[in-house]
Give the backbone structure.
Amino acid sequence: MPDPATPPPPAVRAENLHKSYLLGATAIGALRGVDLTIQRGEFVALMGPSGCGKTTLLNLIGATDLPSRGRLAIDGVDLAGLSDDALADLRRDRIGIVFQFHNLIPTLTARENVEIPLQFKGVGAADRRRRAEALLERVGLKDRADHQPAELSGGEQQRVSIARALANQPALVLLDEPTGDLDSATGREIIGLLLDLNAREKVTLVIATHDASVAARSSRIVRLRDGRLESDGPAA
Amino acid sequence: MNAAAHYVWRNLGRRRTRSLLGVLGIALTLALLTAIQIGLDSVSVAYTDLAALQAGKADVVIQAEGSSPLRPEPFFDAEVRSKLAANPLLRGLSPRLFGIVVVGAGTTQHYAVLIGLDPRRERQFDLSGLAPEPVLADGMVAVSRGLVKRLGVKAGTDLTLRSAQSTEGMTLRLEAAIDRQLLLPQEVKDFVVVNEGTARTLLNEAVQVHALAGALRDPTRLYDARDLHASVRRLKDAGESIAAELGTGYDLRLPKAAAIAAFQYFTSPIRAFFGVFALLALTITALLIYSIVSVAVEERIREYAILRTLGGRRRDIVRLVLAESLLLCGSGVVPGVLGGVVLAKIGVRVTEKILRAEGGQISLHVSLLTLGLAAGIGVLLAVGSALIPAVQAVRWRIVDGLDPLRRGQVAELPRGGEGGQRSLLFLGSALTALSGVVFFVLPPAFLSGNPSLIGTVVLCLLLTILLGLTLVAIGLLPWAERAVLAVVGRWFAPVTELAARNLVRHRRRNTTTAVMFILSVSWVIFIASLAALFSRTSLALVEHFNGADIRIQAEASSPGIKGELAGLPGVEAVAEVKYLRGRSQAGIAYDVVIADLVGLKQLWVVPFGADPDLARALYLERVKYVEGGPEAWVRLAEFAPKEPVPSPVSAPTGDTGAVVIENALPAPAAAPVATGRGDEVFPVILSESVARYLDVQRGDLVRLSFRLGAERRDRRCRVEAVCGAVPGFDNFRSRVAHAVGSGVLMPMAAFDAMARPAPLEAMQTRLLVRTKPGESVQRAVAQKIRDDFDVRHRFGVKSTVERKVEAQRLYWATQILFGLLLAVAIVIAVFALIASMATSVIERRWEIGVLKALGLRQSQLFRMFLGEAVVLTLATGLVGGAIGFSLAYLFVLQAAALMEVPVVFTLPYLTFAATFGLSLVAGALAAHLPTRRLLQRPAAEILRGTA
């Protein structure tokens, strides 16, 4: 039983995070010593010019990549030394990810796409279906549950992605340019949905974006430049 | 169904053409293999009944010791019946009598073999070996259909029959014409069948019989169709227990058991070949499935990465890929197995229709084991072929899987010395294993004498060599591609250079395609070349083995037979050749030994006494002279012995008796030796193997020693010629290993003088006939000899023309059979090629997008892919064809060298042309099908990865 006196661990704690890539024979430093802590329930926007390292940071937080140096803990779990399967379990149970485009499995319906993380967790068929439908209702797509992605608009696809990301009640949801492929009106709808989730259900959100209007609606903006933290403060 | 299952199921429908290719490939392969297996099983199961078609229905046949149907010895059946009265295995015995009779109708007369039966008992014990089965009342006779035609009679006509030794005959009415008899050797075409009483009168044999045909009790226990080997064993045990009770003085045969054993012996190599073919077909199909699944995996790398971000583990993704492959293969297994059953049913019906004319029946035997095996193979193919792509599906890091632009940017660790050592380890292990197989498996296989084991081992080794050469060919591929490009490159302008560079850049990716195509083509060409080479060589062998237009094998010489044959119309020359059997019926051994003059070496040989007409009858142009020439035949023909003079007795020295001292003082000797004129030397023609063994040459003297029972005759001979091969005499060989039992040709007069003490039964005669030119003349003469001489003299008549026709029929039958098998292999290989090229296109979609963005037209892009595909398939086809043909030619050369027969070089032009044509078609299809949709997409869509 968790001790009520002990505060819950932050959703993200990154210490001196480094990430380098080899491009041909050249080593590229995508992240150079980033320290970042994100508490539960925060809505954080990662901003910066192209190549600043925000996608890289998101990948590390999402446990889809591993840091070259430094420490990273997600919901109190230190990623260092975790096996591939353990990382997969972490992504399944504690992290939800929404990509910019081509999120959904094209041959599955909206409901089936949302069910996938539940299936990986071993949830029974009836329970899976019930929860998937509930999630789709939350994002306003209950009546589109049996449609395949090709039959959904861009905004609807992103809603399904969000529902899927919430399937296992994760500690945080990571979004990489979620409105980048959408028109402004649809983008606003999506951000509105996210704000709603954050406000009502205290879902921790980390969103990488170029869009200042999106960042403005967050509670905190973290700016990166050349792989380093440039600024970290509340949104104006 | 859950989401993952839906994902797997719907993935098959995403690329219907590709999925269909995979399903068809599996279905075709399994249909063919299942049909062959069911066919073999059905024939095996039916063979316990079909054996009766070859061997007659009698389970046992009892004869006097040393007797045979064509040389029957009478015995008292009462004695046999009393000995076997209490035998629990025997149901009953039926008497049979045999003899030679003259059958007359009007002025026409023919010799025929007489068969006397008790029709009631034959029916009672179900022993009849006649089709159709006659009633054989008193005064009636059934006659073979051929003889009925020659006599020009029909049912109801009166015929006169008399024994060959008698002048008194009987008049019998013709009851029916018999199409087939299973009581005598099949060479006997002219026969008459009467009841026992009539036969006794004709043969003047009141009491004794020539054979007793028996039926066993409980045949279902003894004949087990599921296990022919066990059947033969049980029958042998039953026969041995009966023979033990019978005692000495009788021979007991099990004709059906012998037929079943012969059937097993015949089908074992077929099964072995089928096994190797199945292995190859399954390998090609496995490559097809591998290609299809690889393509699918490459298309869905991003999806798999998404699934992993949702919490899917690597093994979950691997399971998804394997499940998809299982579904694909399973979809092919069911129609494949069903198709195989249908194909087998058709094949069995066709075979049955042929056999029904002979009274045979085959029912389809589909065993659960066969069906289970087919299903199991399908599962194995699915899992085995998809394993590597499944592992490949999770090889990328998630970030690289999600972003196609990032893939390949993560540098791999340099391999250094470890990689090189690993490949050396692998190569060394492979070479050692192969050497071990050759060293430990090959000699026992050959020593076993089991043709199926030898065939399997040889085929496996050939396959290994083929695989090795394929790998070598992969190494040579760049040069082959350059050569092909130099020839066809101008047809792909202006993208020829781009295509050439792509072939180099994507060498690794194309390796799978190249391996698969080379393997398929080389195996196709290998089999076709083998069939063509063997068939053409066997056609040439007919003349080599026959030696003359007509070759007649007889038991012993009949005086005047040569003159009778020479008098036949169409005959130009007849030569008689006599030789000694090694052992007589009485068990006396006859040894003929040749030695050099100083007795350093000696050798057991087979002497042939040839009459002066041999050179006129023989195919002299086929004689392979090592020393000497055609004048040797003249010397042989011209030799005439001088008056024999009693010579001093010579005593052998030493155990071998190889050195004989002539003109020595008389001494008591165990074996008196007579030499005729002691100093008379007669000419001989030696085989090269004998000459090499003895180390003698043309003009040298050698000593020939006839050791006949207690007698011995020694003479000196002069070597007039040394021959590596003499047509008609298959023991004239050139290798020293074949020296023992080699032939020595000598004048007939010398042979007769040397072999005088030998009884007639030890002699065998070969008659070689040269006919006037023309195939029809040859056929007519052979038929005349069969009609007029066969029965009387128990000839075996073989004409060169007829044997060639048989060889031609066999050639076409094998060509058609192999053609069908090869068609399947090619089709599967084409499928796999298309799928493999599709992988390449998908992996290069980014490159395609960039080229389009740079301004390359759709048609030009297609030409680029077409050029790559066509050059690749033509180059691999060329290399594969060269490998296949070379291997076949080398194999046939080796086999021919072992058998010491000439090889006729022939190229299977049709198969080569078809293979190259198919390569072009395959290349075109492989370029068109995977690119037709992608090339129509806008560049941006391709670059975004949404195409």
Notes: Residues 556-642+669-793 of chain B form one domain. The CA atoms of residues 308 and 316 of chain B lie 9 Å apart. The longest strand of chain B covers residues 90-105. Chain B touches chain A at residues 2-4, 6-7, 10-11, 13-14, 302-303, 305-314, 316, 397-399, 402, 409-411, 945-946 (CB under 8 Å).
